[in-house]
Specification:
The complex is a heterodimer of chains A (270) and B (197).
Chain A lengths: L37 E4 L2 E4 H9 L10 H14 L3 H22 L17 H29 L17 E2 L3 H17 L12 H14 L4 E2 L10 H16 L3 E5 L6 E5 L3
Parallel strand pairs in A: 3-5
Antiparallel strand pairs in A: 1-2, 4-6, 5-6
Chain B lengths: L13 H5 L1 H17 L5 H8 L3 H14 L5 E6 L2 E6 L4 H8 L9 H13 L2 E2 H8 L4 H9 L3 E6 L7 E5 L1 H7 L12 H11 L1
Antiparallel strand pairs in B: 1-2, 3-5, 4-5
Helix pairs in contact in B: 2-4, 3-4, 6-8
Classes of the chains: A alpha+beta (270), B alpha+beta (197).
């Protein structure tokens, strides 16, 4: 639900960016079934994506909003209930906010040649036209939602004999991969005292290392073997990212014979 | 949209049902669509059945009518025809397949997708200006799901990437082609929503 922001003047009233009224022109499709992440911190209360939009337009003063509180709040929420796509989206939005705030706090270089001002006289008209256009697309999005709903109720015959390359995750859900990752991370936490190295670890290097290891082992290697015994948190995160990237590129497969069985990573035959 | 399978400009003539050859052709088309599991262009159907493209279109219309009270339907999607299960039996099929409801696109992603669909080719900047919001995350997810793709670059400052929709986009929403999108503006979209009930 994105609203027409006050064109100016809101940012002075920092610490008081009220969540806007529901859009009276939202039409019958104004209410969405999606539940956006709502946040409540000093200075803002409302959906996270609205905060991002308002901050992006400069309609809310980010320097007055404690992002650390917001991060803590989101983290708490994911601990209670983890919806991976939703949490990822929230994380992305939070990162965008942090980036914006960082830029805000840094000293600005002197402004370059000012761009020629557009005709200010018809600015309200321009804004209105843009809003009308946006509303049309928002309605089109609702129409697409309706089509999506119908089409998701239609099932096609699955293609026969999918090749192995079509099944990069065999008998394994993302959640299980995530749990295995959490277990290795826990191991690193126990060894934390040893963490002094600051060598740069790059995803591409870890991808190459994993590929090399799985290609040497025709039976594949276990998930745990991907990580050295004395392992740093950074190393784990980068290795995990490298693994996901390799799965996405269909260069390796992750398989699990059954629940709680070890996860094996194998090379995909080229 | 349920009747998206009725090919335009093809009248289901009363004589068609009595035309033995046409009924046979419709059955042959049905067999091919059954094994294909995805949209097959009329041209390809004509090729494998040895019939003319016009007869194929008529046969599809016959098939469409014949399937009316069956569990299947024939849809015109992404420049071809496909055989699928009827949406009214979705719950039964889901129970059998033991699948969850499929993951729907988020509201933001749908907005970005709508802008790309109607405005293609367009850049990240075009989209963000219209929405007044950062859209990178949605664009990346849509690229990942292969509903959009980079179609080139605009010859402007920074040569920004231009995005367009994919064949999968048409299949995902059950559209024949891009002209099948409801006309942008209140009336077109409202009309579509009305037909869908």
């Amino acid at each position: 639900m994105r609203e027409v922001p006050e064109p100016a003047g809101v940012s002075e009233a920092q610490g008081d960016a009220r969540p806007p009224e529901p859009d009276p022109d939202g039409g019958p499709f104004g209410r969405s079934t999606a539940t956006p992440y709502t946040v409540k911190v000093p200075g803002f209360e409302g959906p996270l994506d609205l905060l991002l939009t308002l901050a992006h337009r400069g309609d809310v003063d980010l320097s007055a909003i404690p992002l650390a509180d917001l991060a803590r709040d989101l983290l708490e929420r994911t601990k209670r209930r983890l919806d991976l796509p939703e949490a990822t989206e929230a994380l992305w939005m939070l990162a965008a906010l942090v980036e914006m705030k960082a830029k805000l706090l840094l000293p600005k270089p002197p402004p370059a040649e000012p761009l020629p001002e557009p005709e200010t006289a018809d600015l309200p008209a321009q804004l209105e036209a843009q809003m009308a256009e946006y509303r049309a697309f928002r309605e089109a999005a609702e129409a697409l939602r309706a089509l999506e709903e119908v089409q998701q109720r239609i099932f096609l015959r699955p293609p026969q004999d999918p090749g192995p390359a079509d099944l990069p995750l065999v008998g394994l859900s993302l959640d299980e991969l995530f749990r295995a990752f959490a277990a290795v991370l826990e191991r690193a936490r126990r060894n934390q005292a040893a963490e002094v190295v600051t060598e740069p670890i790059r995803v591409v290097d870890r991808m190459a290392a994993i590929l090399q290891a799985v290609r040497r082992a025709p039976e594949g290697i276990t998930f745990d073997e991907l990580f050295p015994e004395q392992v740093t948190t950074v190393m784990i995160v980068v290795t995990f990212l490298a693994l996901l990237e390799l799965i996405r590129e269909r260069k390796v497969r992750a398989e699990q014979d059954g629940p709680l069985a070890p996860i094996r990573v194998r090379a995909v035959a080229a | 949209m349920m009747d998206a399978g009725t090919p335009t400009g093809v009248a289901v003539e009363a004589t068609a049902a009595s035309d033995v050859a046409l009924v046979r052709l419709a059955a042959a088309v049905e067999s091919v669509l059954f094994v294909a599991g995805g949209p097959v262009p009329a041209r390809r159907l004509a090729e494998v059945t040895g019939a003319s493209p016009e007869d194929v279109e008529r046969a599809v219309a016959v098939l469409h009518a014949r399937l009316a009270d069956s569990g299947l339907l024939v849809q015109a999607v992404a420049g071809g025809y496909q055989l699928g299960t009827r949406p009214e039996h979705a719950d039964v099929v889901r129970r059998f397949l033991q699948t969850e409801h499929r993951e729907r696109l988020s509201r933001g992603a749908l907005e970005v997708l709508a802008i790309i669909a109607y405005r293609q080719p367009c850049t990240r900047g075009d989209i963000e200006q219209l929405r007044g919001a950062r859209s990178d995350w949605h664009i990346d997810r849509l690229l990942e799901r292969q509903l959009i793709r980079a179609v080139g670059r605009r010859e402007a400052l920074g040569r920004p990437v231009l995005f367009g929709t994919t064949d999968l986009f048409l299949r995902y929403f059950g559209l024949r082609d891009l002209r099948d999108l409801p006309p942008l503006g209140d009336r077109g979209v409202q009309a579509l929503l009305d037909t869908l009930g």
